[in-house]
Amino acid sequence: MEMETRGFRLTCLIPRFCILLLLPWVATAQRKLPAIFVFGDSLSDAGNNNYIRTLSKANSPPNGMDFPGGYATGRFTNGRTTVDIIGQLAGLTQFLPPYLAPNATGKLILNGLNYASGAGGILDSTGYILYGRISFNKQLDYFANTKAQIINQLGEVSGMELISNALYSTNLGSNDFLNNYYQPLSPIANLTASQVSSLLIKEYHGQLMRLYNMGARKVVVASLGPLGCIPFQLTFRLSRHGECSDKVNAEVRDFNAGLFAMVEQLNAELPGAKFIYADAYKGVLEMIQNPSAYGFKVVDEGCCGAGGTYKGVIPCSSLFKLCPNRFDHLFWDPYHPTDKANVALSAKFWSGTGYTWPVNVQQLLMS
Predict the structure, then answer these.
(1) Whole-prediction pTM value?
(2) Is 112 left (phi over 0), alpha (psi -120 to 50) or beta?
């Protein structure tokens, strides 16, 4: 099922999700759209890593093969990321450019920018095995530059009004485990998993406070997904029949519990703050446990990649044979969901109940 809507073609394999995706366009058509600023890792990267020296890149086919226009943009999936889709749901008629793109200047930045970076994390050390990456601290430095440019264009009052009314999205923490704590010679290897979670939450809290102090008020904070179920972990933890790692998922749940408490604290302590917690763990785990409800047949193997039983070692590139039907797969590669999975997750975050707290993303924008 395809829908042509405000310049975007939305492709949906599950009609009931198409309905969820279509309805908000009517509501947003009559109101001024907010700017959207995106921070995060490879789950949200729109191409920033194309412009840095790094081993973490996705700018070659077949990555992006289902992206509107049909080209590899640097997104770590076959199509759109979750934040791309939520931007469409919010009414944006163009995808947000990556901050490092040459065209990310002038009036274009007034619609928002994407600062996310593959291999980036909460800690500056995270992603060290992949060489270049943009940590959350550096992403916030970049946003400070953007804020100055916005105020320079609009003036102090109008510029701060744009910034305070904008929507902010953050998804961080996955790499702090996968590409830091779980790696050989990690600088935090001497800590217990619980200590790592506490360290990450403390650092994340300070970073979100900095974002708030720069003017952000409406902030979506995504939890970690079930990392013990991704093909990378299934491979390296020698899963026999595709069973998720209970140990890894328990550590993820511990971090997510701290994240939820942090969101509660920020809302309670910061005047005007409207932080929401987006439960990616619950949303993705439901797809894994009940794949047929979402139109999936394969939930333990990447469509594109290589290594081991689950294609969980080497990320997607043109060197590897693509799976017979990518629309059957929850995972695109060893780490990242397919466009189809991102559509389902976005619908939960946008207008669902039980996946976000205290409100969903659509309600946050309308507030």
Answers:
(1) 0.91
(2) left
